[in-house]
Structures are given as structure tokens and as C-alpha cells.
Amino acid sequence: MGLFRTFESGEHKKIKSHFENLVAVALSDGVIDEKEKEYLLSLAQNYSITEEEIMHIIENPDHYVFTAPVDKAERQKQLKEIIRLLLADGKVTQSEINICKKMAVALNYNPSIVVRITNLLQKYMDRPFDLYGILSEIDDIIE
Fold first, then answer.
1. How confident is the model at residue 135 (pLDDT cuts 50, 70, 90)?
2. Range list of H helices, 28-107
3. Considering the entire predicted model, what is its pTM?
4. Does 10 fall in a domain?
5. Structural domain harbouring 58
């Protein structure tokens, strides 16, 4: 953790922690493809994270610690963003499912919900899918 990180506000640390998780998801298949990077950068703008900060996170993924939000709505939002990123490249891999499962557990989701999410994502491995259809199913599971 660098000196700058020590002086960041609590809210900025939480947001960066979420982005660190998103980068971990994007890197779970070994590479961040262009669609995943575009999605990360578009989210970064919404959260006031600079492209420089995102690139630093991408280049140093092991330098950060996960901070789970306490607020249920924020946890839901973060999990949906993680899943949206996982689906950005149009493929679902087992390594992406595994990291999504870890993130859902870290976000304090009930194990039965984690199993339902995992089963849903596994259903779409190696076959075409409707992004918004999957996201709608995820909403039904986590709400």
C-alpha cells in the first residue's frame, strides 16, 4: 500500500477496492480484452476513478485488499457489476465463474445464492447468451 493510499478517503478506498475486484475478474482468464477494458473505463467515470488509477490497479493487482460494503444495495450493485464484467467478452469460463463465486462469498452472500449464481453461469459456458437476460435472472436471484 503506497503512501497516497494511506491518505485516501474511506469512500474512495471502498470504490477502489471494488475496482480491484473487477480487475481480478477481468484478469481471471489471463487477459483483459477490449470490451472488458471499455466497461471498466466507463464504470470508472461514474465513480470518479481516473484512467491512471485503473491502469495502476491493472498493473499491480496484488497490492490491494478487498473491502466488502456493509450496505445491501451496494453489495448487490457490486456483484451485478462483477457479473456484467465477467460477461463483457461474450464468454463464460470456469475461472471467471470461480472468481465470481469467491467475490459473492466475500460480499457476504448466502451460500445458497452463490450456488444459484454459479449454476446459472455454468449453464451459459460455451454457448451464446443474452447479456440482459442473464442480468435479469441474476436480479431475481439476489434480490
1. very high
2. 34-47, 51-59, 72-87, 94-106
3. 0.71
4. yes
5. 3-137
